[in-house]
Amino acid sequence: MDTTILKDRFVENMRWDTNHRKEQRILIVDDEPMIRNILKIVVEAEGFKSDMAQNGKEALERLQANHYQMVLTDMRMPVMDGLCLLQHVKANYEDTPVIMITAVSDANSAIDALSSGACDYVIKPFNVSELRNKILSALERRKLILENKQYQRFLEERVQAQTADLRHALNSLENAYSHTLEALITALDAREHETQRHSKRVSEYTLIIARELNVPEGDLVDIDRGSLLHDIGKIGISDNILLKPTRLTEEEWIEIRKHPGIGCHILKGIDFLEEAAKLVLQHHEKYDGTGYPQGLAREEILLGARIFAVVDTFDAMTSDRPYRKALSYRIAREEIIRFSGRQFDPRIVQIFLKIPEEKWLETRAAVQAL
Fold it and tell me: Which of 187, 363, 352, 268 is nearest to 279 (CA)?
């Protein structure tokens, strides 16, 4: 569904709710006719409709037959008391606020009712002005809660629509995926200004080591796609976090660490990217089990993801960053050796070290020339 239509519908619904106060209905529950009538006068003076019930059992029948925006109920009543009614309302009509009405002697019970889900309480004999304010305040809170829920639904529908659009686009690319996927990843790399062509470089680097390990050709395709798409989940990370020039807070790191799962979710269900999605999910796992999001270790981690961990670090160190120039091959090599057995699979590290520096430089130049 078009997101503009969703937004217009959201705004229209909110305007409707604001302009139709007289259509809101409040259920008044009290075993004393005089109290019921006073409450009815207060409620209807504010422009609301009202129905009345003389005990909790009768109130349940009213609730089943009508939709109410609020329940005002006495605490002590025959047949079914206010606390039992409160429990039923919260279990079955969670968006309906309940205000308890109680005598002074039951004030402690009213306070207990708050912990059971009551919105507020008033003590008899009540002040009409205070009661009116509490009714209006509770209904305003209800309105804000419903608006928030509806907005959350709007956002969820928008995300679902965007994800569906992306999945549809990816499915249609199965026969000619290579150039189109590379264009998509180039655009994502460009979003992080200092990492342009990073995804293509690491996919080529990963294939170099995979071929040295004699990985079957069919598996090479999945490793290539997974490496190329490894950061696609960053499409779901706010620019305020992704492009922040200063150190990230702990909360922002938590958001960043969600991108492998987001990426896997985006690709999940697309047949020709099913294996690639697994690499995307695991591309931040570490050989010693200290990585994320699953904390996998050693051979629990896909071979492609273990290869990727080495070349991703290599590319990051040998590329320019806003805060430093690219490091030399020698420094990157020493760092990878230092973390062998911790961050990296020692077997992969040994293969990396066997490949001449010139091979890496030639591959980098070829990618940059594309």
Answer: 268
- Flag whether the pTM goes above 0.85: no
> Are 143 and 182 contained in the same domain?
no
- Domain membership of residue 166 (yes or no) is no
CB 113 within 8 A of CB 72: no
- Tell me whether residue 97 is in a domain: yes
What type of residue is 34? M
Domain assignment present for residue 17? The answer is: yes
Q: Tell me the one-letter amino acid at 94.
A: E
C-alpha 212/C-alpha 193 separation (Å) is 32
Give the single-character DSSP code of 280. H
Residue of 258, 193, 204 lying closest to 228 (CA atoms):
204
DSSP string, 298-353: GGGS-HHHHHHHHHHHHHHHTS-BTTBPPPPHHHHHHHHHHTBTTTB-HHHHHHHH
CB atoms within 10 A of CB 22: 11
Structural domain including 47 reads: 3-148
Q: For 85-129, how does the pLDDT look when each residue is reduced to its tens digit (9 = 90+)?
A: 999 999 899 889 999 988 766 667 777 778 788 888 888 888 888
Q: What are phi and psi for residue 219, nearest 5 degrees?
A: -70, -30
CATH code, domain with 273: 1.10.3210.10
In tens, the pLDDT along 33-74 reads 999 998 999 888 888 899 999 999 999 999 998 989 999 999
